[in-house]
Amino acid sequence: MSKLIATSQMTLVNLAEKAIDRTEVTFWHGLSATKHPLGVYDCGGRDHAFANEFDVVSGKKYTVRIIAQKTKGTINLKGGIWYTERTSGHQFDGLAALTQAGELSEDGLGIWERTLTVPNGKTKGRVYVQLEQSSTSGFSTAYRVYDAQVFDENGQPLVTDQNNFGALTSPMAAPDGTYIWKRTITYYTDGTNDIVWEYSGVGAKGVEVGGRNLYIISKASKGFISMNSESLGGQNSTNKEYTSDFIPVTAGEQFVFQGWVTIAEGGGSWRAWQFYGEDKKKIGDRPTNGGQATVGLQHYTHNITVPNNTSIKYIRVSARLYEDGKLKLERGNVATDYSLAPEDVQSDIDSKADQALTQQQLNALAEKEALVRAEMEAKASIDQLDKWTSSYQAYVESNDQDKKEAEQQLIDNTKRIVAMSQDWEDKKVHWSFLDTYMDYSDDGLSIGKRGNSTSLRIDNDRISFYSGGKEVAYFSQGTLQIDNGVFTKTLQIGRYREEQYSGDATINVTHYLDFA
């Protein structure tokens, strides 16, 4: 019995946009090669007859097989056929213990079966199991059933999908005539998900379903398989031909090759394949098909059988993909829906994880560095502010005394004899220094440069700044007013600091600076 891990999960956190959050893989069991299972059945009572009915012939041998997992208790399964149509005997004739076939899987999953001969007078029946227990003695034992099957003397199933059960907690060897499916659920960070079913086991004779895509996009090469050269032909910029890597094959093996592509006007859905030996040299001719000029979305399917030549070790497929083409090469003779190769799924997950986490880490580091830098600068500013406050308080304390002295000096000066006096009336005084000038009048003092529209004006109760002949800012009565201003780095008011977010130039952030 195979002992593999059934469920794999990868979780990516804190992704800002739609991306893969996690994937879950589980294995399911069923009789159908085209219809995947949907559930399980729990046996916890005594008698259990399953839904699907089938014909039987008296005197013929039939094999009943139960694929199940004991979930509690010690009572063994009994089983047989519950006869729904009969002319004699009882419905439960032939009931007997089932025998475990092979070993249990890691989590107790196993196969129980028995072969029986149908008694006289029976024409129809259903699969039947029994746990020898009652409500009086207590239902101490329970089984979780994944499939209940019945086969004729030739090993052919009497129903193609007995119960449509599923959900294996671990993969197991698929008995002849049965199927193991793999379900992959991809969850995205926006709450959506995708579900992909793939066949992942050994099926009944004559029907082989692979499901797994062997065409790995990340290993494909640009160019096409040429007829007369071992090298690939060059890729056309419009047709966009791609060729797979060397895919291992064995003589007589069957494959299904499919393509989905939208053909533009004047194009064609060309595709081909080629067998190779151990040395990766061509063996035989290049089978090809296509070139049809049908416009629009196309889907083609080819069943390929590896020639009975033991020298053949590899196959490569090649096709025009244009802008949206997809290819799938799978083992078997039944085509399944498109799915990425597992290697491409994992590569996509790894890539998104690396990109998202790396960017997240860089943003976090940048923000942390900016915060540390801001706090250091702010602390320095606070230290300077403390020093200024101390100086200002000293100034206030001495200001009264200084004011008295200044007032006395003003009185003394007014008493002095004027050495020089000039009454300019309504005229102004003008000083010129190369390209700089100063004008003084009873309206105030102006300072500027020749040919420059920017100037400064000081009068009794206002300091004004001019640009283009208009006042754009002024300082008056303890208030600074500016029409328009740009802070290129940071703006801090008290303990709040606003600055540009280092990870996105379109976002501003406000930090509270704690200096405790």
TrEMBL record:
Superkingdom per UniProt: Bacteria
Protein name (Swiss-Prot/TrEMBL): Antireceptor
Upper lineage: Bacteria, Bacillati, Bacillota, Bacilli, Lactobacillales
